[in-house]
Design brief:
There is one protein chain. The protein is α+β, with helices and mostly antiparallel strands. The protein has a domain of 240 residues. Helix content is 22%, strand content 39%. The strands form 4 sheets. Strands 4, 10, 11, 12, 13, 14, 15, 16 and 17 form a 9-stranded mixed β-sheet that branches. A hairpin with a 6-residue loop joins strand 2 and strand 3. The protein is extended. It starts with 23 loop residues before the first strand and ends with a helix.
Length: 368
């Protein structure tokens, strides 16, 4: 069992107007607070007020012709185990990766990337997230007691802003296919030595063609490889209506991960999601009882995107040589993680099962 070092400070520093100490964003107060003197500073109407979230042109980004103001350069450290790229303060030289608890020497390098356009601020504080995690662990019958106790002892979770892409697109799709109509034929079959009349379903197919159109808004794609996708997918849905224009003040006291999935790679996944919805629209448009889709030609226009940050509380524990990761949706409190197994609990359950089975068998034999 290892002891996790205290998280290094974020690179986003905002001094308190009263005492000069670093402020942090408080999810409950939705303000910047100073833990040193208790001062509160509101974000509303401050110098960081931003206009409405604006989409960026996808083709311009692919052609590397985005305006310079849409790009930024940060200093990040890459974990040798999970490849997470996390922003660290240049004054910190060694720590643990918040995603997998691997020791990291912060040999920081420069990372030039597209600036975030939106941020979904944390709504849950660390204490609330830890309760959600420990409650989730408590519902796992075969989790090791030691790990549950370890998680409950108040070790702080890490607040991480995880990168995502969102894509918008106006689509028009021409298709060909077939509409199937179910009808029934009466046949005579032999059942139990008797002739019986039964209704046999058949499908009559007719060729069709048509067009469907759909505007896609904020198709969400994870831009990180640091956490298993099954974890992050299970944290959905995200209340994207609560998205705020990006302001670094929201990151005060938290970490931000740099994106590892390129914009082009992200659009490939977004296109797969769009194609699945278009196929559903086509089946609805074909109608009938059954549908077959033979071809789809989709034209896309006005493709835009955003780089956004979504809030995740993260715990990574090393327990008996194994790393266990747990993630909590920083808005809803939904929990996912590696399911730990206690071999002792499993063995006891098996033995108890065998004892109960033997007892039931003995009672049954006595009653005969």
């Amino acid at each position: 069992m290892t002891t996790q070092t205290e998280a290094p400070p974020t690179e986003h520093h905002f001094p308190c107007d009263n005492c000069g100490a670093d402020l942090r964003f408080d999810p409950g107060e939705r303000q910047l607070v100073c833990d040193h003197c208790g001062n509160h500073q509101s974000l509303a109407g401050g110098p960081w007020t931003r206009p409405q979230i604006r989409e960026l042109d996808f083709e311009a980004a692919l052609n590397k012709t985005l305006p310079a103001m849409e790009m930024e350069e940060t200093r990040v450290s890459k974990c040798p185990n999970c490849a997470a790229e996390v922003e660290f303060d240049p004054d910190i030289h060694a720590t643990e990766c918040p995603f997998c608890a691997t020791p990291v020497v912060t040999d920081t390098g420069k990372h030039r990337h597209i600036k975030p356009r939106g941020v979904l601020p944390f709504a849950l504080d660390e204490a609330t997230a830890r309760v959600a995690m420990t409650d989730w662990l408590g519902r796992l019958w075969f989790a090791p007691n030691g790990l549950q106790d370890y998680a409950r002892k108040g070790r702080r979770m890490q607040g991480i802003y995880v990168p995502y892409w969102t894509f918008d697109a106006d689509t028009k799709s021409a298709y060909t296919g077939e509409r199937g109509t179910v009808y029934y034929e009466t046949r005579t079959v032999m059942r139990d030595g008797k002739r019986t009349r039964v209704q046999v379903p058949k499908v009559r197919w007719r060729g069709v063609r048509g067009r469907v159109a759909r505007f896609f808004d904020d198709v969400l794609v994870l831009a990180s490889h640091s956490l298993p996708k099954r974890f992050t997918d299970a944290l959905e849905p995200w209340d994207l209506d609560g998205m705020e224009p990006y302001a670094p003040e929201y990151l005060a006291g938290f970490r931000a991960e740099g994106y590892a999935v390129t914009l082009k790679e992200g659009f490939v996944e977004a296109r797969q999601k769009m194609d699945a919805i278009i196929a559903r629209d086509i089946r609805f448009d074909i109608g009938g009882d059954r549908q077959r889709i033979h071809s789809v030609d989709t034209q896309m226009q006005d493709i835009t995107f955003k780089h956004v940050l979504l809030p995740v509380w993260l715990a990574a524990y090393k327990y008996r040589g194994e790393t266990y990761r747990f993630v909590v949706n920083g808005r809803s409190g939904k929990v996912q993680g590696e399911r730990p197994w206690s071999t002792i609990k499993i063995a006891v359950a098996v033995i108890l099962g065998l004892v109960i089975a033997a007892g039931v068998g003995y009672l049954a034999a006595m009653n005969q």
